[in-house]
Amino acid sequence: MRKIALLSIVTATALTAAGYKIPENSVNAVALSNAYVANAHGADAAYYNPANMVFSDNSGGTMEVDLTYVGLSEINYKSTDATVNISSKGENFLIPTFHYVSPKVDNFRFGLSIVSPAGLSKKWSDAPASTTAKEFALQTIEINPTVAYMLNEQLSMAFGIRGIYSNGIVKNAYYEMEGKSFDWGYNLAVTLKPNKDTNIALTYRSGVDLHLSGDTSTTATTINSGVKVLLPVPAIISLGVSHTFGESTTLEAVLEHNVWSAYDKLDFDFDNATNETVLGGSHVKNWKDTDTVRIGVTHTYEKVTAMAGFAYDPSPIPNKTLGYDLPGSDSKIFSLGGRYDLTNSINVGLAGLVSLKDDREVNNSSINGKFTNSHAYLLTAGLEYKF
Predict the structure, then answer these.
(1) What is the DSSP track for 253-312?
(2) Are 177 and 227 in contact (CB under 8 A)?
């Protein structure tokens, strides 16, 4: 029994937190393909750019509740010699989110967001994928309180705390396990308004190491024991520039740097010495940093706000470490959405997004074939209330 085979399914848990991010956690973010930094302006500014909270035209408070459907397609794999032709199972999820911005207090505002920053579930029923990736899942919940301060009419800054709860489940031919963790990070933001129509914003969301700890329920050694693994959620640096043309159309461009290189290796530790010898070990990952480009346009007309976006999001996974757990590839993202003002205080929104991942040929020590049909679909409905 090779350690590398055992470690690959553990890698799947890490990949759900790092290799498959969920940056879209509101109607506006989904509608704009997350090109929503410099122009973040609603209750969800508490998460996407809290420095913008103090520039809101609404002197009172704002809150937003959203529900997002996430659909992951079946992923097809065919070996080069055509002896293997299998598909993973499609997956469907519902993710609720919440955002709140307080009324203005002197030059301060306070915010709170509850979101899911990362997560994935993948199931393979057929060999050889099912041997190492029969089932795995990771759920995350982030609680992100923030505070913003307006230095003057052109400049603001903000600080926040990230608290992330994570729950991971792994099942393969060799063991079953579940681990949980609660870990901390922080976020920073600054916004410059050189004129009334232009915003320049820089945000930093720190990396968070998930110190998952739990127990096995089944092992090939027949010995159950405690198990620990550290999984990185990499830092993200975003630079956004937005400009409003006339009174109604805003264009934003965002360059997002993802520090995936934090995931250089995976160390998996069992409390039991036998399990550590047979199942444990360290596995090199050597992911690379990536730069995501995002473009979004917003147009307002009386009670209606229309939005559209596009993004190019490259995969951080090198060919030599890609496996069945997450056969990631470069992605092109397209999105549309809108909001409608029911009253002066209440508006509703609906947005959709499709992430089309490129087909990917892989030739490494464990895989020699091609992955196709790897796509993700998001549909978000939300309600915002100003008070």
Answers:
(1) EEEEEE-GGG-SEEEEEESSHHHHHHH-EEEE-----EEEEEEEEEEEETTEEEEEEEEE
(2) yes
Residues whose CB falls within 8 Å of the CB of residue 247, separated by 6 or more in sequence, listed in order: none
What's the DSSP call for residue 320? G
Q: Which token pair is 240?
A: 């956004």
Q: Where are the alpha helices (DSSP H) in 18-166?
A: 27-31, 45-48, 129-133
DSSP state of 124: B
pTM of the full predicted structure? 0.90
pLDDT, one tens digit per residue, over 371-382 is 999 899 999 999
Q: What are phi and psi of 279, to 5 degrees?
A: -105, -20
Domains of the chain: 3-386 (2.40.160.60)
Helix extents (H) in the chain? 3-17, 27-31, 45-48, 129-133, 273-279
Q: Distance between CA 87 and CA 92 in Å, rounded?
A: 16
Rounded to 10 degrees, what is the CA torsion of 146, 150, 151, 157?
Answer: 30
Per-residue pLDDT tens over the stretch 333-383: 999 999 999 999 999 999 999 999 999 999 998 899 999 998 999 999 999
